[in-house]
Amino acid sequence: MKIKRVYLDLGNYIKPNKVLVIYGPRQVGKTTLLNDFLSDCKMKYKLDNGDNIQTKNILGSSDFKLLKEYVEGYELLVIDEAQQIKGIGQGLKILVDQVPDLKIIVTGSSSFELSGQVGEPLTGRKTTLLLFPVSQLEMLNHYNEFELKNINENFLIFGSYPEIITLKTVEEKVSLLNEIAHSYLLKDILELERIKSSQILLNLLRLLAFQIGSEVSLSELAKQLTIDVKTVGRYIDLLEKSYILYSLRGFSKNLRKEMVKKAKYYFYDLGIRNAIIANFNPLNIRNDKGELWENFLVIERLKKQHYHKISANNYFWRTWDKKEIDWIEEREGKLFALEFKYKNVKLKAPADFINAYSESSFEVIHLENYLDFIS
């Protein structure tokens, strides 16, 4: 099965003298998306890779003559793994400003390096797309809602990487997920931040994997890892910017007893999370089904917000006396409070929340109604 991605035709996003920047985690399908587009592309294009030493020297320079010679005769320049090229932003700016009608696409498997490289030089000169692991929105191109609900457990256990979805056997899925988690996942951080050992990062991820849905204390993590709190904070920031972790902050406007300082962390892909803790057991024998479900809904909602251009601020809500709501969405001047439960149960919003935010709505998202929320 070839999965239809949300950015099916990149041609809709390409504009003369602007750079199309495609971000996303490793192995998420950026190169496949490029190749699919280029296979039908009518423009004369030049495809190169950021790992190429000559390409690094040319695009990392500010030599206009060299840059112009590099793209001469081409309508479209495509650079895969562009985060590998130091100073690429300045080189792209020169091409955008000085070569009429040139179209450019670059991809990057992490935002922390590539966005830093292209951010300031390409202000007003770029369009940005973020490609996630496969969304339930995209899966609805291949299954109806009934069928998708029936295979829901697969996404909670093995995640949503494109190749994982298309593999047939559990053994193949587990093997590839272990390969991604231990060989590709931290590659950009280790290369670009000069961190000598991946073991501390993996240990940090393992600790966070067991705390899905719970507020995380950086000082406690630092103590367990025997490193300082600032280092823990820096590592988590890198893991967020490389699309491994997503952080959710606490919401507060009125009550002194609301908790806002700590954050919750979720994995962009649950297959990676389960690979890190080496647990691919089915849901019926797991004690973390609720945490998996919460993580799944959080990330799928993010995908929907991004792909449908829903402008919202996302939070969780909790008080010191442990009253909580999993998801608060602030949009259109309103608050939408949602509790995530695998089974359909009747719940009321905590009285403290309703009293403080009387104009808000409250809903329970469960296995029977979740597709409306995320697709």
Could you please describe the fold and organization of this structure?
The protein has a six-stranded mixed sheet, with helices on both faces. Strands 2-3-4-1-5 form a five-stranded parallel sheet, covered by helices on one side. The longest helix has 19 residues. The chain has 375 residues and is of the alpha/beta class. The model has no long low-confidence stretch (mean pLDDT 90). Helix 13 packs across helix 14. 42% of the residues lie in helices and 17% in strands. It starts with 18 loop residues before the first strand and ends with a helix. The protein folds into two domains: 121 residues, 3-Layer(aba) Sandwich (Rossmann fold); 172 residues, Arc Repressor Mutant, subunit A. The chain contains 18 helices and eleven strands.
Percent helix, as a range, is 40-55%
Task: Give the class-level CATH name of the largest domain.
Answer: Mainly Alpha
Number of separate structural domains: 2
Large-scale geometry: globular
* SSE pattern: EHEHHEHEHEHHHHHHHHHEEHHEEEHEH
Main sheet: strands, sense, barrel: 6 strands, mixed
Instruction: Return residue spans where pLDDT drops below 50 for at least 5 consecutive residues.
Output: none
Number of distinct helices: 18
- Span between N and C termini? 20 Å
Under CATH, the topology of the largest domain can be stated as: Arc Repressor Mutant, subunit A
The second-level CATH architecture of the largest domain is: Orthogonal Bundle
| Radius of gyration, whole Å | 22 Å
Mean pLDDT over all positions: 90
- Number of strand elements: 11
